[in-house]
Amino acid sequence: MGRLSERFPALYSHATAPGASVRSAVQGELPLVPRLTAQATTELSELQGIIQHVRLTEVSDSRICTLAGRDNVLRSSPVYHLAASALHDSDSLHYSFVWRNRAPPRVQFFGWLLVQERIQCKASLEKKGIVEDATWDICRRTAETADHLISQCSFVRQFWNMLKLDATSMKVAQIWQTARPDNVPSLHYDCFLLLCCWNIWKHRHDVVFRSMEPSLHRLLIACLDDARSWSCRLRREEKKVTESWCQIFPPCNTAEA
């Protein structure tokens, strides 16, 4: 049936108390202005016909939502999955890369924004009028776009090169297509990519908000720490994957950038 305000717009425009209860309407206490237009009169007649068949009880209302959890609390995850399936997007590559990734939830959310180029980089903030200068704080050569921040900056290129990963053609909108180097296990490679991008993003925050100098040494140590802590997110038989990741980040032999 839908909302009465949408079904009877003319009558709703004549209501003096739009938030009146159903009980008052059923009891004939419709809060309307004294004089109605012809259209509102017609709608009132139709509404009264509906009200005649409504029977109220003393039983408490029971609200059922298929998207709510067992505790009857609505959460965003099932809503997103429903919307994604409605758009035939649940099988898309970016959906699989982000939401079937073993990264922590907040990193998955970051990845979801990243692949859609919606992270709050300076180029995006400049378009919104939040900042006046979109120059990337690390290389100070060009605008801070999502692609430049993750793969095109000379500093970030050094990082990827140390991992033996060619970021020349890397694009955030299709980051899962980045060629995997031989030293990185194929299992959970998507998680490895998100781990690196997440730490580049955090390193950017250190430079922008904490006035810290860019440092490959510090960036690699952060990746190493996350590789160790994320091991608990993998199955026991998959622990060798994160052990391999830890061998890829060599902070002790890295000179300060």
From TrEMBL:
Protein name according to UniProt: Reverse transcriptase zinc-binding domain-containing protein
A Pfam family the protein falls into: zf-RVT
Reverse transcriptase zinc-binding domain residues: 93-160
Top-level taxon of the source organism: Eukaryota
InterPro entries: RVT-Znf (IPR026960)
